[in-house]
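pasting for ref
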Amino acid sequence: MANIYYVGDWAIMMGPIFAESPFNYEYKGTEIFNYGTWLVEALESSGEHTVTSVPAWDFYRLAPGEFDRILDEYDLLIFSDVEARNFQLHPSFFDRSKFGSKPLTFPDRVRLTVEAIHRGTHALFLGGWLSFNGECGKGGWGRTRLAEVLPVTCLDFEDLRESTEGYRMVPTTGDHPALRGIDLHASPPILGYNITRPRPGCEVLATWGDSPDPAIAVGQFGSGRVAAYTSDPAPHWGCNLVSWDQYPALWQQLVRWLLAS
């Protein structure tokens, strides 16, 4: 049984906003959504894995040494809609009470992730507005050392491609074990994805329609296997995907391949 650490795909909705005077307005309610529920249930449904799902803000607030412990305990990392700043910054950098008391430094979570993958921790990088290069470049993965362990190449500018008509995955290989038994031709329309480029030495298993843009790509870096799915496993881009009857099998098969090295 594999232990999986899944960061991202949580959201907080604040509002709606009610204006009650020219000088006063109030938020009426705050809701927290875990959009990762579908992927967690899919991965745990076979009984092969246990998944710890955490929001990006919990990952951002990890104390020194906590991520090292996680990397020791978990077999597979999943990052979805987790912009690079969550790896590179820490709340203490913005706490004025700490300024000048001692040097403020923390272990580099980008470096720790890259080194862990080379040692044999496996990873699944998933798309979204804050993944790969992302909206207005906010994802920023390609500007960090995460680019060393991605099986695709990020763009240097905004990489979102969206359509209300959707895009469909087209397999590029007949029988790769990461997708064995999955009929991508039957997959539903996906409402958007991150445009990336194929990476030399890695394999693109599916593209988006008749474009060369990778939908699913895999590669090996040191002892670790890595897969990228360049859309979101959850709404809104994935609102049709989560009800697909092959949704659980798709993720289970990808994870089986990642863990089989």
